[in-house]
Amino acid sequence: MVKQARAELTRQQIVAGAAAQFEKTGYGSTSMSDIVAGAGTTKGALYFHFASKDELAQYVIAEQHRMSIESVQAISATSSSPLEQLVMLTHEMARQIVEEPIVRAGIRLTLELSTFEGPVEPYADWIAASTDLVQRAKDAGQVKGSVDIGALGRFIPAAFTGVQLVSNVIARRADLTERVDEMWKLILPGIVSDALSGDVDTLVNSRWVPVAA
Predict the structure, then answer these.
(1) With a threshold of 0.85, does the pTM exceed it?
(2) Confidence grade of residue 117 (pLDDT, cut at 50, 70, 90)
(3) What is the pLDDT of residue 2?
(4) How far apart are CA 21 and CA 24, in angstroms?
(5) What is the CATH classification number for the domain harbouring 34?
(6) pLDDT tens track for 134-168
(7) Which of 131, 142, 172, 205 would bridge 137 by S-S if both were Cys, CB 3.0 to 4.6 A apart?
Protein backbone atom coordinates (compact mmCIF):
# COMPACT_ATOMS: atom_id res chain seq x y z
CA MET A 1 0.00 0.00 0.00
CA VAL A 2 2.82 2.40 0.90
CA LYS A 3 4.61 1.47 -2.32
CA GLN A 4 1.48 2.17 -4.37
CA ALA A 5 0.99 5.52 -2.66
CA ARG A 6 4.60 6.45 -3.37
CA ALA A 7 4.21 5.45 -7.02
CA GLU A 8 1.07 7.56 -7.37
CA LEU A 9 2.83 10.52 -5.78
CA THR A 10 5.70 10.14 -8.25
CA ARG A 11 3.22 9.96 -11.13
CA GLN A 12 1.54 13.18 -9.98
CA GLN A 13 4.95 14.81 -9.64
CA ILE A 14 5.84 13.81 -13.20
CA VAL A 15 2.54 15.10 -14.59
CA ALA A 16 2.93 18.42 -12.76
CA GLY A 17 6.49 18.81 -14.02
CA ALA A 18 5.47 17.91 -17.56
CA ALA A 19 2.55 20.34 -17.50
CA ALA A 20 4.83 23.17 -16.40
CA GLN A 21 7.33 22.37 -19.14
CA PHE A 22 4.74 21.91 -21.89
CA GLU A 23 3.13 25.20 -20.93
CA LYS A 24 6.48 26.97 -21.01
CA THR A 25 8.07 25.59 -24.18
CA GLY A 26 5.37 23.62 -26.00
CA TYR A 27 5.37 20.04 -27.21
CA GLY A 28 8.04 20.27 -29.89
CA SER A 29 10.64 22.02 -27.75
CA THR A 30 10.15 19.87 -24.66
CA SER A 31 12.36 16.82 -24.19
CA MET A 32 11.97 13.96 -21.75
CA SER A 33 15.15 15.22 -20.08
CA ASP A 34 13.47 18.61 -19.57
CA ILE A 35 10.51 16.88 -17.94
CA VAL A 36 12.77 14.81 -15.67
CA ALA A 37 14.58 17.96 -14.55
CA GLY A 38 11.36 19.89 -14.01
CA ALA A 39 9.70 17.06 -12.10
CA GLY A 40 12.75 16.39 -9.95
CA THR A 41 12.63 12.67 -10.67
CA THR A 42 14.63 10.11 -12.67
CA LYS A 43 14.34 8.87 -16.23
CA GLY A 44 13.65 5.41 -14.89
CA ALA A 45 10.69 6.67 -12.89
CA LEU A 46 9.42 8.69 -15.85
CA TYR A 47 9.54 5.76 -18.28
CA PHE A 48 7.97 3.46 -15.69
CA HIS A 49 4.83 5.61 -15.78
CA PHE A 50 4.90 6.95 -19.36
CA ALA A 51 6.42 5.19 -22.36
CA SER A 52 6.87 8.34 -24.45
CA LYS A 53 6.50 12.10 -24.57
CA ASP A 54 3.38 11.68 -26.69
CA GLU A 55 1.75 9.42 -24.09
CA LEU A 56 2.53 11.98 -21.39
CA ALA A 57 1.17 14.85 -23.49
CA GLN A 58 -2.02 12.91 -24.19
CA TYR A 59 -2.42 12.29 -20.46
CA VAL A 60 -2.08 16.02 -19.70
CA ILE A 61 -4.69 16.80 -22.37
CA ALA A 62 -7.01 14.13 -20.94
CA GLU A 63 -6.66 15.57 -17.43
CA GLN A 64 -7.46 19.06 -18.67
CA HIS A 65 -10.45 17.67 -20.55
CA ARG A 66 -11.64 15.77 -17.47
CA MET A 67 -11.60 18.96 -15.41
CA SER A 68 -13.61 20.78 -18.07
CA ILE A 69 -16.22 18.01 -18.30
CA GLU A 70 -16.59 17.95 -14.52
CA SER A 71 -17.24 21.70 -14.59
CA VAL A 72 -19.88 21.28 -17.31
CA GLN A 73 -21.63 18.59 -15.28
CA ALA A 74 -21.51 20.56 -12.03
CA ILE A 75 -22.78 23.79 -13.59
CA SER A 76 -25.52 21.96 -15.50
CA ALA A 77 -26.73 20.50 -12.20
CA THR A 78 -27.37 23.95 -10.71
CA SER A 79 -30.75 25.69 -10.67
CA SER A 80 -29.41 28.57 -12.78
CA SER A 81 -30.99 29.26 -16.16
CA PRO A 82 -29.37 27.85 -19.33
CA LEU A 83 -27.98 31.25 -20.38
CA GLU A 84 -26.57 31.83 -16.91
CA GLN A 85 -24.95 28.40 -17.05
CA LEU A 86 -23.43 29.22 -20.43
CA VAL A 87 -21.80 32.36 -19.04
CA MET A 88 -20.76 30.53 -15.86
CA LEU A 89 -19.04 27.84 -17.90
CA THR A 90 -16.83 30.30 -19.77
CA HIS A 91 -15.86 32.06 -16.56
CA GLU A 92 -15.06 28.76 -14.85
CA MET A 93 -12.86 27.82 -17.80
CA ALA A 94 -11.17 31.22 -17.53
CA ARG A 95 -10.55 30.61 -13.82
CA GLN A 96 -9.05 27.20 -14.53
CA ILE A 97 -6.75 28.63 -17.18
CA VAL A 98 -5.47 31.28 -14.78
CA GLU A 99 -5.14 29.03 -11.72
CA GLU A 100 -4.43 25.50 -13.01
CA PRO A 101 -1.08 24.80 -14.76
CA ILE A 102 -2.34 21.49 -16.17
CA VAL A 103 -5.24 23.31 -17.85
CA ARG A 104 -2.92 25.85 -19.47
CA ALA A 105 -0.64 23.04 -20.62
CA GLY A 106 -3.54 20.96 -21.93
CA ILE A 107 -4.90 23.87 -23.95
CA ARG A 108 -1.50 24.67 -25.44
CA LEU A 109 -0.92 21.03 -26.34
CA THR A 110 -4.37 20.69 -27.91
CA LEU A 111 -3.79 23.76 -30.07
CA GLU A 112 -0.28 22.69 -31.09
CA LEU A 113 -1.04 19.03 -31.77
CA SER A 114 -4.23 19.85 -33.68
CA THR A 115 -1.95 21.13 -36.45
CA PHE A 116 -0.81 17.53 -36.90
CA GLU A 117 -4.16 15.75 -36.61
CA GLY A 118 -4.10 16.02 -32.85
CA PRO A 119 -7.01 15.60 -30.40
CA VAL A 120 -10.36 17.08 -31.39
CA GLU A 121 -12.40 15.66 -28.50
CA PRO A 122 -11.88 18.58 -26.07
CA TYR A 123 -13.28 21.12 -28.52
CA ALA A 124 -15.93 18.76 -29.90
CA ASP A 125 -17.27 18.13 -26.40
CA TRP A 126 -17.16 21.84 -25.55
CA ILE A 127 -19.13 22.66 -28.69
CA ALA A 128 -21.64 19.93 -27.83
CA ALA A 129 -22.07 21.29 -24.29
CA SER A 130 -22.48 24.86 -25.56
CA THR A 131 -24.96 23.79 -28.22
CA ASP A 132 -27.02 21.89 -25.64
CA LEU A 133 -27.16 24.93 -23.35
CA VAL A 134 -28.13 27.22 -26.24
CA GLN A 135 -30.90 24.79 -27.22
CA ARG A 136 -32.15 24.69 -23.64
CA ALA A 137 -32.06 28.50 -23.50
CA LYS A 138 -34.08 28.69 -26.70
CA ASP A 139 -36.60 26.16 -25.39
CA ALA A 140 -36.93 28.29 -22.23
CA GLY A 141 -37.63 31.42 -24.26
CA GLN A 142 -34.34 33.08 -23.32
CA VAL A 143 -32.97 33.17 -26.86
CA LYS A 144 -34.53 34.64 -29.99
CA GLY A 145 -36.26 32.17 -32.27
CA SER A 146 -34.13 33.34 -35.19
CA VAL A 147 -30.85 32.28 -33.55
CA ASP A 148 -29.03 29.41 -35.29
CA ILE A 149 -28.43 26.98 -32.42
CA GLY A 150 -25.56 25.08 -34.05
CA ALA A 151 -23.77 28.21 -35.21
CA LEU A 152 -23.93 29.83 -31.77
CA GLY A 153 -22.86 26.59 -30.09
CA ARG A 154 -19.76 26.55 -32.30
CA PHE A 155 -19.10 30.28 -32.04
CA ILE A 156 -18.92 30.56 -28.24
CA PRO A 157 -15.95 28.16 -27.79
CA ALA A 158 -14.23 29.77 -30.78
CA ALA A 159 -14.77 33.27 -29.40
CA PHE A 160 -13.54 32.27 -25.95
CA THR A 161 -10.45 30.60 -27.42
CA GLY A 162 -9.55 33.78 -29.28
CA VAL A 163 -10.22 35.97 -26.25
CA GLN A 164 -8.02 33.91 -23.94
CA LEU A 165 -5.19 33.67 -26.49
CA VAL A 166 -5.10 37.44 -27.04
CA SER A 167 -5.38 38.04 -23.29
CA ASN A 168 -2.37 35.76 -22.80
CA VAL A 169 -0.29 37.60 -25.40
CA ILE A 170 -1.15 41.10 -24.19
CA ALA A 171 -1.58 40.70 -20.43
CA ARG A 172 -0.52 37.14 -19.52
CA ARG A 173 -4.25 36.59 -18.87
CA ALA A 174 -4.33 39.08 -15.99
CA ASP A 175 -7.34 40.70 -17.67
CA LEU A 176 -9.07 37.51 -18.78
CA THR A 177 -12.15 37.94 -16.57
CA GLU A 178 -12.76 41.42 -17.96
CA ARG A 179 -12.22 40.25 -21.54
CA VAL A 180 -14.72 37.40 -21.09
CA ASP A 181 -17.23 39.91 -19.71
CA GLU A 182 -16.66 42.04 -22.83
CA MET A 183 -17.25 39.01 -25.03
CA TRP A 184 -20.64 38.40 -23.46
CA LYS A 185 -21.59 42.09 -23.59
CA LEU A 186 -21.13 41.85 -27.35
CA ILE A 187 -22.84 38.47 -27.82
CA LEU A 188 -25.85 38.63 -25.50
CA PRO A 189 -27.68 41.71 -26.89
CA GLY A 190 -27.87 40.01 -30.27
CA ILE A 191 -29.26 36.69 -29.05
CA VAL A 192 -31.48 37.24 -26.00
CA SER A 193 -35.25 37.35 -26.36
CA ASP A 194 -37.12 40.62 -25.92
CA ALA A 195 -38.17 39.50 -22.44
CA LEU A 196 -34.52 39.44 -21.32
CA SER A 197 -33.28 42.51 -23.19
CA GLY A 198 -33.02 44.44 -19.92
CA ASP A 199 -31.17 41.64 -18.12
CA VAL A 200 -27.96 41.55 -20.15
CA ASP A 201 -25.78 43.05 -17.39
CA THR A 202 -27.15 40.54 -14.88
CA LEU A 203 -26.43 37.66 -17.25
CA VAL A 204 -22.90 38.93 -17.91
CA ASN A 205 -22.20 38.82 -14.18
CA SER A 206 -23.29 35.19 -13.78
CA ARG A 207 -20.71 33.20 -11.83
CA TRP A 208 -20.58 29.64 -10.54
CA VAL A 209 -19.50 29.10 -6.95
CA PRO A 210 -18.62 25.44 -6.27
CA VAL A 211 -20.31 23.91 -3.25
CA ALA A 212 -17.76 22.99 -0.60
CA ALA A 213 -17.43 19.25 -0.07
Answers:
(1) yes
(2) low
(3) 66
(4) 5
(5) 1.10.10.60
(6) 999 999 999 999 999 999 999 999 999 999 999 99
(7) 142
Buried b (16+ CB within 10 A) or exposed e, 178-207: ebbbebbeebbeebbbeebeebbeebbebe
In a domain, 210, yes or no: no
Strand partners, 192: 143
Burial of 14 (0-12, 13-18, 19+ CB in 10 A): buried
Domain that holds residue 22: 1-51
CB half-sphere exposure, 197, CA atoms < 13 A: 5
**Are both 93 and 110 inside the same structural domain?**
yes
Same domain assignment for residues 18 and 39: yes
Q: Is residue 1 part of a domain?
A: yes
Instruction: Give yes or no for residue 130 having a pLDDT over 90.
Output: yes
Confidence of residue 1 (pLDDT cuts 50, 70, 90): low
